[in-house]
Amino acid sequence: MKAPQFICIVLFLPAMCFGQNGYISHKFWQLSSLSGAVQLGGHYRYQEGTTNEIYNYQKSSRLYGGILLNANSYFYHPNLLSLDLGVEWNPELGKDLFLVVPDQAEVRTMQKVNVAATLFKQKNFTLGAFFNYNMAYTNRENLSNIKSSGTNWGGSLTFSNKILPFQASYQQGNWNETEILTGRTFVTKQTNVQSKISKSFSTHDNTELNYYHNDYMRQDATLLQIRNISDNLNLNNTIYFDNKRNYFLISTISGIDQKGDDAFRRYQVDESLCFILPENFNLTTNYNYYNYQRASQDLRQNIITGILRHKLYQSLNTGLSFEYNNIVHTFYKEQNSKAGIDILYEKKIPLKGRLSLSYAFNWQRQNRESDPVLLPILHEEHILTDGQMVLLSKAFVEPSTVVVKDVTGTIIYQLNLDYLLIPRNDFLEIQRIPGGQIPNKGKVYVDYVSMQPGSYQYDVSFNNFNASVILFNRLIEVYYRFSRQDYFNLKTTEYLTLNYFTQQVAGCRLEFNFASGGYEYETYNSTIIPYRMMRYYIVLQGNIKSKLTFSLNGNMRQYKMLNDSTNQTYLDVTGIVGYNFSPQTSINLELGYRKQVGQQMDLNLLTARAEFSTVFRQVFVKIGVELYGRDYLHERTNFIGGYVQIVRNFNWHKK
User: Fold this and answer.
1) How far is CA 480 from CA 221, 358, 406, 503, in A?
2) Per mean pLDDT, which of 67-81, 109-123, 507-521, 559-573 is the most reliable?
3) What does pTM read for this prediction?
4) Of 55, 72, 257, 344, whose CB neighbour count within 10 A is largest?
5) Which tens digits make up the pLDDT trace of 240-252?
6) For residue 639, is pLDDT > 70?
7) Maximal CA-CA distance, the chain
C-alpha cells in the first residue's frame, strides 16, 4: 500500500462513523482525536573536501513537503479496543552536482508508520499489539552519515489480580544501516520474549520471577554473520523480618543459557542480609556464588563480604569492610582476602564554608596457583569515554587476538574504524574513534589472549586521601586528592606486571552567578602509564530579562605521556545564544568545536548554525544557515548550507 493511500484511510475511514446529527454513543469505529502537521521547505548545500587524496565537491538543492498525522480511535467503546496511528511521509525532490561522480537527480523519502492497539484497556486482563516502520537519514556525531530503515512489531499481555499477577511481551525487529561515507552496511535482527510473575505471600515479602528469551543476529559489512540465542531466568525475593523493615534479606538467583557464536552458561546466586542497628549502625553481609561455563574454560567463584557503617552526628561517617574471594578456573586457582577502613568528616566552617576530609585504606592479599599459560580473557568490561585513558586489564596481550563487542555479543566493532589500540609498556590502551559505532561513554566487552604468569603471591596496600574547602556559598572551592598503591611480600614469576603508582590531583573551582570554571593538575607516577595532566573548564549560562539566553561550555585536557614524551590534547567548546523578539519570534545561534591531538586521533571539527523562527496565524516558519568543517586524520570536509521550513500544525479532540 502506498503512503498517500494509507494517509487517506487514516483520515477518512474513522469519519465514516459519524452520524449526520452529531456523535452516537456507541459506534463501530469512533475517532477520538486527530493531530498532525503539514510542512513545506527547501535547502541548498555546498560541500567540498579531500578523501583518500581525491578532491571532491557537491552542490545539492532540495525541495520537500510532508505530512505528519497522529490519530486515536476506538471500536464500539474506548475500553474495548483502542487504536493509535501515526504516519509521517516526507518526499524530497532535488539535484546533486558532483566533481568526481556523474551528475544525478533523485527522489528520496523519509517515512514512518506507528500502529498500536490495546484490547480491554483499563481492565484486569489487557492485550496490546504494535507495529513500527521507519526510514531515515541520520548523523553520528557530525562525522558519519547513516541511512537506516527498519521494522519493529510485537504484542503484550497483562493479567492483574491478587493471586498471581502476570505480564508477558513479544517483540521482533529488523534494522538495516549504511554508513554513506565508508560504505559499511549493518543488518540486525532481534527477537525478544519477556514474562514476569509477581507474588507476595504476606506483607513481609515480595517475590518476582522473570524469564527472557533473546535471539540476536548481526551481519556487519564483510564480516561473518553473528547470532546468539539466550534464555535467562531470574528469581528475585525480599523478606522482611520485622514490622519496621530494619532487618531484611535480598535474594537473587539467575541463570543464562546462550547458544550460538558466543555459547556459554552462567549461574549466579546473590544473598544480602541487611541490619539497621541502634546507635546509627548499619551492617550488610553478602554471599555470591558465580558459575561460568564455556567450551574452553570453566570458572567457579565464591565471594563473602561484610560492611559495618556508623554515623556520628551529622559530620563523621566511618566504615569497616572485609571480603574473601575464592576462584577455581580451568587454568588457575586464586584466593583473595581484603580488608579496609574509610572515614568521612564534613563540617561547616566560617566564611559560609564547608570542610570535607576523607581517608580510605585497603589491604589485599592475592594468592594464585597456575602454570605460565596463554590465557583467553573473555567479556572484560570497559566504558570508553573521550579524554579518559582505558587499559586492558592484563599485560602481554597479543593485539591480533583482541575482539571488541557490544553488550549483546553480536556487534563486532572494527579496529581503526570504531576503536584504536595503543601500546603502553606491557599493556594496551583502547580508545573509541569519534564517529564510529561505539558511543561516547559506551560500554564494550573485550576478548583477547594474554600471557599469564605462573604461581605468585603478593600483598597490596591502597591509601586514598581527599580534602576540599568551600567558601562563600560555593564561590571558591579548593581540593586535593592523593592516592598510593604499593606491593610487598612478593612471591612472583615472570610475566607479572604490577602497577605501583602515586597519584596527586589539585584543583580550584570558582562559581559566581552565571559563571563557573576551574583548573586541575594531576600527576600520575605509575610503573605502567605515567603522565601529567592539566584540565581547564568554564561554564557560562543565564538569561537577561527573559529576552537573551546564553550557554557556553568549554573543557580542555592536556596529557603529557612520560614514557614516550608524547602529548595528547582534548578540547571541547559548545555555545548557544538565543534572543526572543516576542513570544512568537526568536533567533538562535549554536556553535560547537572539538579538537583532538594525539596518536592516530587528530581531529578538528567545527559546527555552527543560526536559525530564525516565527509564528504567524498558527503557521511556523524557520530560516537557517549551517556551517560545518572537519579535518580528521588528514581527510578534510567543508560544508555550508541554508534552509527554509514552513509548518502548519493542527489538533482536534472529540468533545
Assistant:
1) 49, 11, 36, 11
2) 507-521
3) 0.79
4) 72
5) 999 889 999 999 9
6) yes
7) 94
| Listed residue (536, 483, 532, 528) closest to 508, CA to CA | 536
End-to-end CA distance of the chain, in Å? 32
- Give the sheet arrangement for strand 442-452, strand by strand: 373-384, 442-452, 403-405, 412-413
Q: Is 215 helix (H, G, I), strand (E, B) or coil?
A: strand
- ∠47-51-53 over CA atoms, to 5°? 125
Cell numbers placing 311: 554515623
Q: pLDDT digit string (tens) for 277-322?
A: 999 999 999 999 999 998 888 999 999 999 999 999 889 999 999 9
> What CA–CA distance (Å, rounded) separates 113 from 88?
6
Cell numbers at 17, concatenated: 462513523
Rounded mean pLDDT, 371-381: 86
Give me 370's grid cell: 597456575
Residues near 240 by beta carbon (within 8 Å), at least 6 away in sequence: 204, 205, 247, 248
User: What per-residue confidence (pLDDT) applies to 97?
Assistant: 56
Q: Do residues 261 and 290 make contact, with C-beta atoms less than 8 angstroms apart?
A: no
101 secondary structure, DSSP code: S
Handedness of CA 405, 408, 410, 411 (dihedral sign): negative
Name 369's bridge partners.
333
Torsion 47-48-49-52 (CA) sign? positive
**Cα radius of gyration rounded to whole Å, the chain:** 30
Q: DSSP code of 498? A: -
Contacts of 26 (CB under 8 A, 6+ apart): 76, 77
Whether the CB-CB separation of 58 and 96 falls below 8 Å is answered with yes
